[in-house]
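2024-03-11 09:14:02 INFO worker-7 job=invfold-0412 stage=load source=structure_tokens
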């Protein structure tokens, strides 16, 4: 006798849930249940994703399904081009229910609100029970974040991060932080120099499965943004683990020092380039942090590197996810500055004389990757200074990066980079003139514009846009205590200079 249900359940696994320890898999019965995975138009087209992102997800899905099958799971896998593909997850689940005479659906909570809201209606639509399980790959459950946020006017990451250090025990000595300090960010702002031996992320040659997917993407998504080949991403957990080892071995020791640096021709510097693997589920965020912690205790990486890296994951990554679920729906429509400019066309081509913008955009086109400071202080900073509609900026970021899912992208864009939430996430706008970019990069040397020139012909556009942005939004920003000194500088400026800044900004904006 068995108490197993007579009919199987459908275990739906999404394209960013490719984890052996996925909650829905843990709950599933290998002898009875059916795993459903589906390449569908609704997910592949809700924004026009970068070609490399679609390729990575489809290929990783196919590899994951093959691994599960080899372990004895019953798999129902729909390929993008299959004749009977309904084009939607709900349609594919419905088809599987009928085909397997299934009694219910089990799925791990999707990362994006849009899909969770849709799934809330599935039980009625499909006529079977639909169980949505907590995504246990995150370290901070929704309820914990909600109680942390309750009653706080501003949600500062630093305090959340300290709680997460205590909770995970990462880099802790009892209840004290390793090295007697929670945060070593002040040591992590060095500009970098070109180095012939600059580490590179692990590159994996496409196998037959990946090659088939590349052909599919080239055929079906020909008009999407981005260069598809060469494609070198890991698409299996084994290869993603190798990429983690390569990062820890070669780049981690310098990760902290050069975290904010930018160099022409060096898209990756000392960054891990692991976000797409972590977000798709190939790597578990806690295992990545434990590996980095071990590198510190083994004497392989300094504390500022290990702490800085771990903070990005148990701090920022968990925190932005908490903010997203706390504030959705509605968060992606926030527009504190009421900015309305269209996204300049050169965001899709890189065709601009601003060397920093051209570098960040062409690298985004070629690799579906830019590191944090490029996203924040170059393309993000420019869009905010120019008054671009934050929703258009959000859609661009969601489309062009291989690690982009709304739960992580939107708080970073709407909150951190565009200040469109009015300061929920950041205590002041990340606005900067050309001086910052010049200090942290080597872009300005080869630029047509002169970073030292403040206004007029040939002046770096960031310089005038910076002041124009602050003054345009003076009513909303002057009271910000962190901007007191900046407005004081403006107040002491002569009228001629003020006029010149505003005229230069206006002339430049006319050209967009
Ligand atoms: P590293 O610099 O090596 O950092 C290590 C890891 O920390 C990353 O892999 C990532 O998992 C995590 N991390 C670092 N910073 C953040 C952060 N601010 N928020 C969440 N996780 C973080 N990250 C995404 O994963 N998807 C996005 O769509 C995304 N959009 C962004 C948009 C803007 C405007 C900005 C400013 C940042 C965005 N980020 C996003 C955060 C960050 O830029 C990327 O996680 C990082 O550049 C990925 O490269 P990496 O793996 O080399 O990261
Ligand atoms: C991003 C993506 C793409 C491009 N395609 C699929 C797909 O065909 N099937 C699928 O299950 N998931 C895909 N994904 C990932 C989903 O968009 C992701 O699971 C949701 O956005 C929730 O985070
Ligand atoms: Fe960018 Fe200005 Fe430097 Fe040119 S001069 S690279 S536009 S910051």
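2024-03-11 09:14:09 INFO worker-7 stage=emit residues=512
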């Amino acid at each position: 006798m068995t108490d197993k249900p007579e009919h199987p359940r459908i275990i739906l696994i999404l394209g960013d849930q490719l984890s052996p320890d996925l909650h829905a898999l843990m709950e599933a019965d290998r002898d009875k249940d059916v795993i459903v995975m589906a390449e569908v138009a609704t997910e592949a087209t809700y924004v026009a994703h970068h070609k490399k992102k679609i390729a990575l997800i489809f290929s990783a899905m196919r590899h994951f399904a093959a691994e599960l099958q080899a372990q004895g799971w019953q798999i129902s896998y729909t390929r993008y081009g299959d004749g009977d593909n309904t084009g939607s997850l709900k349609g594919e689940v419905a088809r599987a229910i009928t085909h397997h005479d299934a009694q219910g659906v089990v799925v791990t909570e999707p990362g994006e609100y849009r899909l969770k809201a849709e799934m809330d209606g599935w039980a009625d639509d499909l006529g079977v029970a639909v169980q949505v399980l907590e995504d246990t790959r995150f370290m901070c459950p929704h309820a914990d974040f909600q109680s942390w946020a309750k009653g706080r006017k501003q949600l500062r990451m630093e305090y959340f991060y300290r709680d997460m250090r205590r909770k995970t025990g990462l880099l802790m000595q009892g209840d004290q932080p390793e090295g007697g300090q929670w945060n070593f960010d002040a040591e992590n702002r060095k500009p970098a120099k070109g180095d012939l031996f600059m580490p590179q992320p692990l590159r994996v040659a496409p196998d037959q499965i990946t090659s088939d997917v590349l052909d599919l993407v080239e055929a079906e998504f020909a008009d999407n943004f981005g260069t598809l080949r060469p494609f070198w991403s890991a698409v299996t957990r084994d290869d993603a683990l190798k990429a983690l080892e390569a990062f820890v071995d070669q780049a981690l020791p310098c990760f902290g020092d050069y975290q904010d640096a930018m160099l022409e021709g060096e898209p990756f510097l000392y960054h891990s380039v692991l976000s797409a693997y972590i977000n798709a589920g190939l790597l578990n965020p806690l295992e990545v942090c434990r590996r980095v912690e071990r590198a510190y205790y083994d004497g392989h990486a300094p504390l500022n590197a290990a702490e800085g890296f771990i903070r990005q994951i148990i701090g920022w990554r968990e925190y932005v996810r908490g903010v997203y679920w706390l504030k959705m729906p509605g968060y992606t429509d926030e527009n504190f500055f009421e900015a309305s400019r269209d996204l300049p066309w050169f965001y899709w081509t890189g065709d601009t004389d601003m060397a920093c913008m051209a570098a960040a955009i062409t690298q985004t086109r070629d690799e579906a990757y830019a590191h944090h400071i490029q996203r924040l202080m170059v393309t993000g900073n420019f869009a905010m200074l120019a008054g671009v509609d934050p929703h258009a900026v959000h859609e661009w970021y969601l489309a062009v990066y291989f690690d982009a899912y709304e739960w992580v992208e939107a708080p970073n864009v709407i909150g951190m980079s565009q200040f469109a939430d009015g300061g929920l996430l950041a205590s002041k706008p990340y606005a900067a003139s050309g001086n910052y970019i010049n200090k942290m990069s080597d872009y300005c040397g080869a630029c047509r514009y002169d970073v030292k020139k403040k206004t007029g012909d040939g002046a770096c556009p960031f310089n005038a846009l910076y002041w124009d942005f602050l003054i345009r939004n003076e009513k909303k920003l002057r009271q910000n205590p962190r901007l007191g000194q900046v407005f004081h500088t403006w107040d002491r400026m002569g009228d001629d200079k003020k006029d010149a800044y505003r005229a230069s900004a206006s002339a430049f904006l006319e050209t967009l």
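2024-03-11 09:14:09 INFO worker-7 stage=report msg="The pocket of iron/sulfur cluster (ligand 3) is lined by residues 354-356, 434, 437-438, 443-444, 447, 449, 451, 460-462 (CB under 6 Å)."
2024-03-11 09:14:10 INFO worker-7 job finished
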